[in-house]
Amino acid sequence: MSRVYNFSAGPAVLPEEVLREAADEMLDYKGTGMSVMEMSHRSKAYDTIIKEAEQDLRDLMNIPDNYKVIFLQGGASLLFAGVPMNLMKNGKAAYIITGQWAKKAYQEAQKYGEAVAVASSADKTFSYIPDCSDLDIPEDADYVYICENNTIYGTKFKTLPNTKGKELVADVSSCFLSEPVDVTKYGVIYGGVQKNVGPSGVQIVIVREDLIANGPALAYTPTMMDWKIQADNDSLYNTPPCYGIYVCGKVFKWIKKMGGLEAMKAHNEKKAKVLYDFLDQSKLFKGTVNPDDRSLMNVPFVTGDADLDAKFVKEAKEAGFENLKGHRSVGGMRASIYNAMPIEGVEKLVEFMAKFEVENA
Ligand SMILES: *Cc1c(COP(=O)(O)O)cnc(C)c1O
Fold this sequence. Notes:
Elements: E1 5-6, H1 16-24, H2 44-61, E2 67-72, H3 75-87, E3 92-97, H4 100-109, E4 114-120, E5 143-147, E6 149-150, E7 155-156, E8 167-171, E9 188-192, E10 203-208, H5 227-232, H6 242-258, H7 260-281, E11 286-287, E12 298-302, H8 306-318, E13 321-322, E14 333-336, H9 343-359
Parallel strand pairs: 1-13, 3-4, 3-5, 5-8, 8-9
Antiparallel strand pairs: 2-10, 6-7, 9-10, 11-12, 12-14
This protein binds pyridoxal-5'-phosphate.
């Protein structure tokens, strides 16, 4: 067996320890004589799995009791509709467009109400986070929407926008559990788990309970997308993505063991620094993002020559560094260095880049 350094943006690297544990439990989960894949979601064993997963997530993020945690399915993309359906009581919301995922959410919201773009960084191919300290937020907006970490472009909100008292809704798919967060600043935090937390197929919504107390804003919201029904049923309204939630639960325990979100942040900052420091002194490679807005998770870079970029990606792959090609919409390279990427992975990548730079000077 050999494992590569996997820089995929998602689905992405998971902690090896978690994968080994899941493998050990594959045929017989804790004496039940069956795999978690084979057991009823109403069984006692599964009930413990999903309850512990929720509790561990609450502990890690310090989620107050007046927030619900729900496990859903359908991709973060389904929540682009789920957010307006549940929250657009006045039929209006403000969107900050910092990349393709924010734009898709904005476009989807337009089907259900009036989505107003209040800021955008499209003018410079989303290479920065716009100033959001004094935006023109409509008086009757139900919420202000952000994509907190822009997976494709490699930017991250370092300061949350001034929402002028409106609820903040954040897609955190690619920065979930990468550092501590103050949940009380948000009305809704949500994300797909396949970037930093688990296998694709699971989405997590953390929502302040009063926002869903009367059910969804739009009466025709499908039952499956009704956050109140899902919360009232402890995410077991129907069969949830059982195996995926089980793996997420293992990742939560792994993060706890590693020291929680403060420790994750230190680990992620250390890794990102290795890569950004290299990019800042390199004569061949350069980062594409405004330095103040750099993501700890997704690091895009280019040589400035598309053929050389392709050569780099190819040679890197041969050397065991996988999935470094940039997103199809932007080209160049991107190294995603999520929680589970060990520091050695980044150090070795940088060594390889230095060698490539000398060889192609
Ligand atoms: C990957 C990603 C999505 C889309 O996730 P799906 O689960 O494929 O729908 C949405 N938002 C962000 C920030 C992402 O990184």
